[in-house]
Specification:
This protein is 53% helix and 18% strand. It contains 15 helices and 19 strands. Strands 1, 2, 3, 4, 5 and 6 form a six-stranded antiparallel beta sheet that branches. It has a five-stranded antiparallel beta sheet with strand order 8-7-11-10-9.
Length: 645
């Protein structure tokens, strides 16, 4: 006799067939989600690349602006190294975004060199460089391709060159501003929004100017991207995005290749494909686990139903077999409390009434068919309920994921827009400040008192605008979650005194007394010197702004057991009690005299709390105000930080 499947295998097969459409829906949903996720990733890389391209143009503009300012200086036409070297070194120290500044005569010989650490000697020549020859021959600005800089030796970078003209407008030399690949990479490290994301810049020949994960590019590494078809397309002015293989790591990436707007360079922004698509893979893994759980549950239900159904049936079968063999004293003895018990009772009654055997058997068969149909109906109904529930859950999950992706994309666009606008504003401000300093130094001739006052107003306004740009950039980074502290073990006392001295001329101009009380010995702890200095300057600037002439501004720094405390007190107009809770809120302005973005105190609060400290104020109308903040000995804040080497 051919073996037949038992009740339990049949139930298991039935449950499995019911769940097969669910598996099909999972696979279809995964493919759709994978395609949508890849499209969203590529859109995000393109937005980031466009923002970086704008910043690259701003960097070029800044380099040209500094070079033109130097070229217009009479000292550049004299080409006297004794006077040029100190000026150029002071400028390159003041503008750390540039590696070095040099002035070269018509033969390319160096007549002035400025570097933060390197000596001007020995002198060198750039007469063989293409950007030098281009600036001399065209009498216009030129940008070089990526090449190993002469000084520092072996470092990859590029240079912006402008001609130095005589009084008739003829070129008599060149001003060259050098930028290293490491400086560009450092500038864009904080622009990465996702793990594994890289940002690269390629010159018109296809050589890499920088790579955010490789500070020092070798010439071979710089050449590695030249054969990529998407890069050649971007250098031709056509942006493109998609999957590509990284020539440096042989890693599959999703990225965008975008040309810069005002130069024939290209920006590359990419992210590992596995990292980018990890959320989609993780969702499939969770769905498969859920499907496996449902399948196991179905098997357990099938096993339980099989056991419950087969046990009394087996007893009935044995009784029937015994009855067929003539054992009329054998009874089924079923006591399940359901329909099967009644079947057993009927069978026992049949044994006692053989004369009605046929009729009793037909009745039993009818009852068994009804029970089987009822069971199948219940199983089918339960299966439809599970499928409907699964479909509803899948729809809700898809809607939530779409909404989350939209919100994330909006945050990314907002952060990129604020960062791009801030960097675009910084370049003209740098040029304005440079020209103002040239005028103040008397480079263009002695100034009258009125002219010197105008220059002072220009510098004050430029500093104010730079502060507003920095506030907007800090706000964008804090809001986007990309802000990081640069912690170092340093002397807080010297940093506070440096901030005080930078504002003392402003206080004296306003007719104020500026008193300082600090410990006699250094106050050393781990902190971000730039950001803590920013907090001190914000509090001092507010105190000076709201204190009338003849008043006093007092700064006190004290060392405590758990860290340090800094207080800035003024004898100004004071603050009403109902306005105090709004002081540290974003874009909040208190009092009709207040001017600005309303971000200074909010950013100061974020910077102090990032160190694990606190900030507050005590004030009353007509009695002045005292702003204070504390810093712990060891930072315990919420922003990511790293100890500077």
């Amino acid at each position: 006799m051919t073996p037949r499947l038992g009740l339990f295998p049949k139930l298991l097969i039935a449950f499995t067939l019911v769940l097969l459409p669910v598996l099909g829906l999972l696979v279809s949903s995964y493919r759709t989600n994978l395609a949508n996720h890849e499209t969203a990733i590529l859109e995000g890389q393109t937005l980031t690349a466009q923002a970086v391209a704008g910043e690259i143009d701003a960097t070029f503009d800044g380099a040209f602006g500094l070079a033109w300012a130097i070229a217009g200086n009479p000292l550049a036409r004299e080409m006297d190294p004794r006077r040029l070297d100190p000026l150029l070194r002071r400028l390159v120290t003041q503008y750390p975004a540039f590696e070095a500044v040099g002035v070269f005569d018509a033969q390319g010989r160096n007549r002035g060199y400025g570097h933060p650490t390197l000596s001007p000697e020995p002198r060198f020549s750039i007469g063989d460089k293409a950007h030098f020859r281009a600036a001399m021959s065209t009498n216009a600005a030129a940008i070089s391709a990526v090449f190993p800089l002469r000084r520092p030796a072996g470092v990859m970078g590029f240079a912006a060159a402008v001609p130095v003209r005589d009084e008739q407008g003829r070129p008599i030399g060149v001003v060259s501003v050098g930028v290293t690949a490491a400086q560009l990479a450092k500038r864009f490290e904080e622009a990465r929004l996702q793990p594994g994301q890289i940002i690269s810049l390629a010159d018109p020949t296809g050589r890499l100017a920088f790579h955010t994960t490789r500070r020092s590019l070798t010439p071979a590494e710089s050449e590695s991207y030249r054969q990529l078809a998407p890069l050649r397309s971007a250098l031709a002015g056509i942006p493109t995005s998609g999957a590509y293989l990284s020539p440096l790591t042989s890693e599959a990436r999703l990225g965008a290749f975008v040309p810069t707007l005002r130069s024939q360079w290209a920006v590359i922004v990419g992210i590992p494909r596995e990292v980018a698509l990890a959320p989609a893979h993780e969702r499939l893994r969770r769905d498969l686990l859920a499907f496996g759980g449902i399948l196991l549950l179905s098997g357990a239900i099938a096993a339980l139903l099989g056991r419950l159904l087969t046990r009394p049936i087996h007893a009935l079968e044995e009784a029937a077999r015994a009855l067929g063999q003539g054992d009329l004293g054998r009874r089924a003895g079923i006591a399940t409390g359901d329909e099967l018990e009644r079947v057993g009772a009927a069978f026992d009654e049949m044994a006692e009434r053989l004369q009605v055997r046929d009729e009793a058997l037909r009745e039993s068969e009818a009852r068994l068919r009804a029970l089987s149909e009822d069971l199948e109906r219940r199983v089918a109904e339960r299966t439809r309920q599970l499928e409907a529930l699964n479909a509803e859950l899948e729809g809700s999950r898809a809607q939530l994921e779409v909404q989350f992706a939209q919100l994330k994309a909006l945050d990314t666009v907002k952060g990129n827009f604020v960062s791009s606008v801030s960097h675009e504003l910084r370049t003209p401000l740098t040029s304005i400040m440079g020209y103002a300093e040239f005028l103040e130094d008397g480079v263009a001739g002695p100034l009258t008192e009125d002219q010197r006052a105008f220059v002072t107003q220009i510098q004050a306004g430029t500093i104010r605008l730079q502060t507003l740009v920095d506030d907007l950039l800090d706000f964008a980074r804090i809001d986007a979650g990309t802000f990081k502290l640069r912690l170092e073990h340093a002397d807080l006392r010297s940093k506070v005194l440096e901030a005080v001295e930078s504002l003392r001329p402003q206080a004296e101009t306003s007719g104020l007394r500026l008193n300082v009380v600090v410990p006699e010995t250094p106050v050393e702890l781990d902190f971000d010197a730039q950001r803590v200095g920013q907090v001190v300057i914000n509090l001092l600037t507010n105190a000076i702004k709201f204190t009338p002439a003849g008043g006093t501004v007092r700064l006190a720094l004290t060392q405590e057991a758990a860290g340090v405390r800094c207080e800035v007190a003024d004898s100004g107009v004071g603050i009403a009690a109902e306005d105090v809770p709004r002081l540290f809120q974003r874009f909040s302005q208190v009092g009709v005299q207040h001017r600005g973005t309303g971000l200074g105190l909010s950013i100061s609060k974020s910077l102090v709390e990032a160190h694990g400290g606190e900030i507050g104020v005590r004030s009353a109308p007509g009695e002045g105000s005292t702003f204070w903040f504390t810093l712990p000995a060891s930072p315990t804040g919420s922003f990511g930080g790293e100890i500077a080497a």
